[in-house]
Amino acid sequence: xxxxxxxxxxxxxxxxxxxxxxxxxxxSRATSAIESASKPASSPPSKSRGGPRTGAGRPxxxxxxxxxHQRRPALSRHHPIHVTQxxxxxxxxxxxxxxxxxxxxxxxxxxxxxxxxxxxxxxQSNHLHLIAEVESRAALTRGMQGLSVRLARALNRELGRHGxxxxxxxxxxxxxxxxxxxxALRYVLLNAxxxxxxxxxxxxxxxxxxxxxxxxxPRPHELAFGSxxxxxxxxxASHSSTPPVATPRTWLLTIGFLRAGPFDIDEVPAx
Length: 271
What we know:
The chain is built from nine helices and five strands; from the N terminus they run H-H-H-E-H-E-E-E-H-E-H-H-H-H. By secondary structure, it is of the alpha+beta class.
């Protein structure tokens, strides 16, 4: 109120210019001061747009958190990649003989394309673990797109269904040291012991993986039970002795991981 009074007093002050210009300018100033004083104080701008909001963003596709859609980091051809991909809920287990045979055939068909090479795999009931070598980030993208399309077409045909097969985009993690490569190989090839211990008896390899083609278990091939049977099953299905996986070329996957020590088929990988 004091500020409004001061404005009115200045508006009617004869020394403020009203004597030279007449009452017109003084009256105009008084009117402006009254109008300015009568206007309500301006409120801060509304925040209805922009900023974090409850429920904003891409809706989740399932109960598990989705894979980030941020740009994937650059990759080196010297570092293998551990890839995980999940199928949608409500579908039969991929470890049944019929669906695993279809999955293995599709993986074999896309094992080496576009600078992408599939070195090892493990098929679980509702997800896949892959270890691959790639020339670049683009090679990983194109190789996984090719594999995903082959798998979706083959499995949808086998299941008599249509539509998306995978619940989300794949998760990929580069393996840069002998220790991380050893841990990833152990995790992938022995993954069934983590999820379904009863499905793989002691002393047996997981037949739903590429373990039969892994030459570095610290026991004779004859004592890796189930390995010979898995090799014969693949030869009958493919009419070939060529493995369903590619031969590793990186130092880390050929001999480098052995610097961190071997692992046996009866070990249970940690989460």
